[in-house]
Amino acid sequence: ALISPDYLEKVKYFENFPHSLSFVTHLREDLEVIENFSRDACCENGAVDVDGDAFAKAQAMLSPTVCHHLYMGLADSTLPEEGLIATAFGNCFRYESSNMASLERLWNFSMREIIFVGTGEFVQDGLDRAREKMNAILDDMGLAYRIETATDPFFIGNFRNQAAYQNAFELKFEVRLSLPYKGDTLAAGSYNRHKDFFGRSLNIKRADGKAAETGCVGFGVERLAFAFIAQHGPDVADWPTAVRQHMETSQAKW
User: Which long-range contacts (CB under 8 A, 24 or more apart) does 124-130 make?
Assistant: First the structure.
């Protein structure tokens, strides 16, 4: 769950996503501070009521996504010639203020990712194959969805230019699932190309010495489940055959 603030600064997360960051701290290692907290601290309206000076500087952050740990581990390394594919599952933390009202958006959520690191062609081929396989899974789940280009700030100096950059090169695609009860859609997954941003920022090199390119597929598990129930309802008997058969097979194994 934890990640280094040095890393997040290096990949410009402080600059591009400051509003969503979650900080980890502890009481200052000062006996008087600890005794005062023990005596005076309380919880008011769901929040700890304590002097902010009692907390030490944050030396850790809650990780906003899963793939960052892989990129951090690959820093200052050279990839094998064939490139690298990794899969990951873990907790993500993004503070989204009043938007955190249901399973649509959570401060702490679960994400499954598949990550590609190598040449641009290798990354794009991996993303294309992953999208084809994921479309088949979504179809088996009987989900109504659409895939559309999207933006988030990651690459260059200001938000407007970043969005234009991503749109122009079609670097991000979102999977938006229908929420029939509210006539809206929910972004439950995405396919992302980062070009050589992480390769340059972290000195991740390909076998030929050039900066590696990266890309990832990520799906929010709670959002996927929420949209599934919103479309099919809570009664298992009404769920698509493929889903029910998978559940029966899984239960038989246990």
Answer: 124/193, 124/215, 126/85, 126/215, 127/191, 127/193, 127/215, 127/217, 130/191, 130/217
**8 Å CB contact between 197 and 216:** no
What predicted TM-score, i.e. pTM, was given to this entire model? 0.88
Strand (E) positions, the chain? 2-3, 23-24, 42-44, 47-49, 60-62, 77-78, 84-93, 108-118, 145-149, 172-179, 184-195, 204-205, 213-220
What would the two tokens of residue 12 be?
A: 């410009």
Residue 154 pLDDT > 80:
no
11-25 residue pLDDT tens: 999 988 899 999 999
| Pairing state between β 77-78 and 204-205 | parallel
CB atoms within 10 A of CB 55: 16
- Token reading at 60: 């850790």
